[in-house]
């Protein structure tokens, strides 16, 4: 099998093919074991012509236009261009992929278009965010983009959804067929009006929301669609006044941050003045489990704590499921932790999660979920409060202020980062 062309292709281009794609290409030959050797060559030729792979191709920065031109000469499908990070994605045959890797000098690296998945009760008062409300810091004038499964126009947020794009189904009006994105939107900016005494009010109840649907009904999506969503936010930052991106999704980190296209995308958004909050992941308590794009050293990576359903912070512990550092590059992560266990937020009636987890409904308007997915938009909501108070802060300055406002929980930095955010400290 060592002389087969795809094996040779992988060998010739080892540094240009990411680990997952290498493994996928070598698995191409698995069915050959049960087929007579004499049929291997014609079968290989046939499969190379008709078997398609979804890939993300990164070009050398100075050769992007040339690389895109070469891609367009192939018979590829679903071509999407990401000039922000000099990448594109496409579906192509092995014949075309082999031709490109061998002849297109503009290619820096090719990645498998891997899967990404979706990773308020006492949470708001327990992080001190309610104290900021008393000072009228409610996220007014700030906009949070929720890159997720969409947003259902729940009564607690519907008047503040100022933008929506559906990169899965192409629909124009806000919707959420999974329910995860709606919950996250409520974690950040729900106003609690459908609850008694606004019990389920989020940190930024007057912030605006932009929904970016990149995950499907089951909460799954692809590397290329997530990149497309981040690029859309960056390109439309001025039109929708996007200040913050909340990313409660992730994928196993298999490449260094510098070689990870979605990390490159979030860092471009950061460089363009957008604060990015990313979930650490739900693969704890094992060490070294921080998900991509939370492995980015630039963005704010959020872990989860269990507040034990009390406002008193003394009984709070880091959630067992919350991913631990260090990252694949040995950076200390997460950056900080916020509540992420049994968080009550907005319900999307009839969505996948709503039907699959009826027991998680809280009344008719709310829903309980756990995960760093919940802690992340809560952090995004606090960022909106801070930016209302100090609108000229850069993303780096926002991050520094949040880290300095944390309380040490006595856990290793790879478990708690700088500790448990206490938003009250942002008033000083």
TrEMBL record:
UniProt keyword annotation of Protease present: yes
Keyword Transmembrane helix: no
Keywords: Hydrolase, Protease, Serine protease
List of catalytic residues: 148, 180, 373
Family annotation (InterPro entries): Peptidase_S8/S53_dom, Peptidase_S8/S53_dom_sf, Peptidase_S8_Asp-AS, Peptidase_S8_His-AS, Peptidase_S8_Ser-AS, Peptidase_S8_subtilisin-like, Peptidase_S8_subtilisin-rel
UniProt xrefs under Pfam families: Peptidase_S8 (PF00082)
Domain of life: Bacteria
Peptidase S8/S53 domain segment(s): 141-419
Family statement drawn from the similarity comment of this UniProt entry: Belongs to the peptidase S8 family.
Stated name of the protein: S8 family peptidase
Organism encoding this protein: Ornithinibacillus massiliensis
